[in-house]
UniProtKB/TrEMBL annotation:
GO biological process, one term: cell wall organization
GO CC terms: plasma membrane
Source organism: Candidatus Doudnabacteria bacterium Gr01-1014_77
Record-given protein name: Phospho-N-acetylmuramoyl-pentapeptide-transferase
Binding site for Mg(2+): N218, D278
InterPro entries named among the record's database cross-references: Glycosyl_transferase_4 (IPR000715), PNAcMuramoyl-5peptid_Trfase_CS (IPR018480)
Length: 359
């Protein structure tokens, strides 16, 4: 049985790898043709001198990762109880990330939120009663949006931070429904302690980890080969766990993911021929979390996904430091940009540039 899983996993890995390698050049051509490329008007990291060459690099390349994983899984590893939901949440996240990528490239206007003071004035003094009622009803939503702006979320052209959080909560809710109600699974495994039944409290744990890993992987996608390389390591660790548990369906899904990422990495190592973009980076984090729960080892995300955790914590620390003390702790967040900055890059000492970044 074990040998059969290993052999089939090898076939899935090689198939995903070669399909990705074969389809990448035409995808790169199409992305360039339709000008789906990195631009400096929304790429704040481009003020780093060493990253100037990244402008014009095709983005949205992660669509090939999503497509290959989907095609091979639906054709050869489709199981309603095991692979259906991970694949479904991958596509939901891909739609969210893809919309963000395309809007940032092609949409022309930035979406600045109104101040709460202005909204309150509309509620009190707007001459049209219908608008006054509308602003009053939507005030909580406007306040929710404003919170993200105040803590440093720069209003761009794409899907806004507050919108991403809502959609990520929906995706996390689907995973929670799948585990808690469909599979009747409410236990959390802890090292040396075994399984602890959390009951319905498993739901907030799932939501937290889904949102954490989705944004952590998304943030890590910032240097050639960084996100793909770390994802290969993380998925490989869970592949070993799946083999140890004898989970054939999940093992084959993981082999497909790893093969696809390896094929993509061939074109993403420095200098990158194309980049993943949000279309895959959001989905990869959520897919990693759903597989961790499917294998009953979500707590290991804190170790296996340590690089992702460090990346997102650097952003949280940077934002908190700026709010509390009025200055930055790192030269730029996430931390891989801080490490990229050279001492002679005096541009980073200018406050104006950092105010644009929102950090």
């Amino acid at each position: 049985m074990f040998e059969q899983i290993i052999l089939r996993s090898f076939y899935f890995f090689m198939g995903a790898f070669f399909i990705t390698v074969i389809l990448s050049p035409p995808l790169i051509f199409l992305l360039k043709k339709f000008k789906i490329v990195r631009r400096d008007d929304r790429d704040f990291s481009s003020i780093i001198k060493t990253r100037k060459s990244k402008l014009g690099t095709p983005v949205f390349g992660g669509i090939i990762i999503v497509a290959v994983i989907t095609a091979l899984t639906m054709m050869f590893n489709w199981h309603r109880e095991t692979t259906f939901v991970p694949l479904g949440v991958l596509w939901l996240a891909a739609l969210l990330g893809g919309a963000d990528d395309l809007l940032n490239i092609f949409y022309t206007k930035e979406r600045h939120p109104r101040t709460l003071g202005r909204i309150i004035r509309f509620i009190k003094f707007h001459k049209n009663l219908k608008y006054r009622i509308w602003y009053a009803i939507t005030f909580p939503w406007q306040a929710y949006k404003r919170v993200f702006y105040l803590v440093g979320s720069h209003p761009g052209k794409g899907v806004q931070a507050h919108e991403k959080i809502i959609i990520q909560l929906i995706i996390g809710g689907i995973i929670a429904w799948w585990l808690s109600f469909k599979l009747d699974w409410t236990e959390l495994w802890l090292p040396w302690l075994g399984n602890i039944d959390l009951g319905l409290f498993i739901i907030p744990v799932i939501l937290f980890l889904v949102m954490l890993m989705a944004n952590a992987v998304n943030i890590t996608d910032g240097i050639d080969g960084l996100s793909a390389g770390t994802l290969i390591i993380s998925y490989s660790a869970f592949f070993a766990i799946a083999l140890q548990q004898g989970s054939s369906d999940i093992s084959l899904l993981l082999a497909t993911i790893i093969g696809t990422l390896c094929g993509y990495l061939l074109f993403n190592i420095k200098p990158a021929k194309y980049q993943m973009g949000d279309v895959a980076s959001l989905g990869m984090g959520i897919l990693l979390t759903s597989i961790a729960f499917a294998l009953d080892r979500p707590i290991l995300l804190l170790v296996i996904g340590m690089i992702f955790i460090i990346e997102i914590m650097s952003v949280i620390i940077q934002t908190s430091w700026k709010v509390l003390f009025g200055k930055r702790l790192f030269k730029m967040a996430p931390i891989h940009h801080h490490l990229e900055i050279q001492p002679f890059d005096s541009v980073f000492l200018q406050d104006q540039a950092f105010q644009v970044l929102g950090f």
